[in-house]
Amino acid sequence: MNEYVVGVDAGGTSTTATAHDWETCSLLGSGKSGYGNALVAYDTAMNHLKEAISLAISGLQGQCRFILVGAAGATSGGLNERMAAELAEVFHCQVAVETDALLALEGALEGGDGVLLVSGTGSIAQGRKDGRLLTAGGWGNLVGDEGSGYDLVRRTIRLMTEDSDRGRPERPVCRMVREFFGLADTRQVIGYLHSHVKADIAKASPIVEKAASAGDSDAARFLMEAGDALADLVQCLSTRLNLPDGFRLALQGSVIRNVAPIRERMLGVLQQLGIRCTLVPSEGEWTRGAWYYAKAREGIQR
Questions:
Q1: CATH number of 114-142+223-280
Q2: Which of 57, 58, 83, 276 has the maximum number of C-beta atoms within 10 A of its C-beta?
């Protein structure tokens, strides 16, 4: 009987699932749905996960042997066991729910050692050496997510409130973000912040980058601070794991991949700290990390 493994990247903006042949890891199918952060809205997120998985395995012959879900917010919120049980009941196979960073780490580093840094809607870093796995960041938008798209917008909104309190004129980057949301003033922006999910807020992050490119000093400072914060996550793991010179560093997420000033700042800070790493090409669908995870779980040489 043909068997396959499914990897699911349940992020703050969208959910992607891919099915891979158990023997070869070759891609058999894929599916996509809405956000998968169960901390935001559990039932909606679970429906998105089920939809993406169903699309990925639609028409496949054989049996699903294992599903690994990399879910933003699931482990910090303590929802992973509940999510795994619900999915196992639907798809009749073994299911594990871990961080989205672990799924990407497995896929990007092909089961090997190194660090995976994620900066998209949120942020987190995960590293491994000789079987020891550690995480830095990933505490969620209420207390963390430094260096993420959400954080760029949050910093801008905080600046709005400070200027409003002091009666100062509206700054360019603040005006651009407010207008992106189609709102009239700071109080409406705060209302929007509290009534929308993290992914909705993070959608304005390209506006901050645009303002920085146009010469806005506040926006430029936010990008630099994001790079500093992300470098700190990598440094934490490099130090705690005692990683060797030239360790592999994989980058995932729209912010760290696409916003050059943040990425260059992060790499520059690491260099200043004497932390030397080798960037892993960010190509392909890292949901294939489920295959590496499943093989290791069963003690099978990959």
A1: 3.30.420.40
A2: 83
237 by Cβ neighbours in 10 Å (0-12 / 13-18 / 19+) ranks as buried
Range list for CATH 3.30.420.40 in the chain: 3-98, 114-142+223-280
Overall residue count recorded for the chain in this entry? 302
Q: Give CA–CA dist 157/231, Å, rounded.
A: 23
Taken in order 71, 74, 75, 79, the sign of the CA dihedral is negative
Q: What is the pTM of this model?
A: 0.79
Edge-first strand order for the sheet with 247-252 is 132-137, 123-129, 114-119, 247-252, 277-280
CA gap 202, 153 in Å, rounded: 6
Q: Which fold has domain 3-98?
A: Nucleotidyltransferase; domain 5 (3.30.420)
Specify the 3-state DSSP secondary structure of 179: helix
CB-side neighbour CA atoms (13 Å) of 274: 2
CA atoms within 13 A of residue 129's CA, in its CB half-sphere:
14
Percent of the chain beyond pLDDT 90? Answer: 68
Q: Crossing angle, helix 149-166 and helix 217-241, to 10 degrees?
A: 130
Q: Is 91 helix (H, G, I), strand (E, B) or coil?
A: helix
What's phi and psi for 154, nearest 5 deg? -60, -40
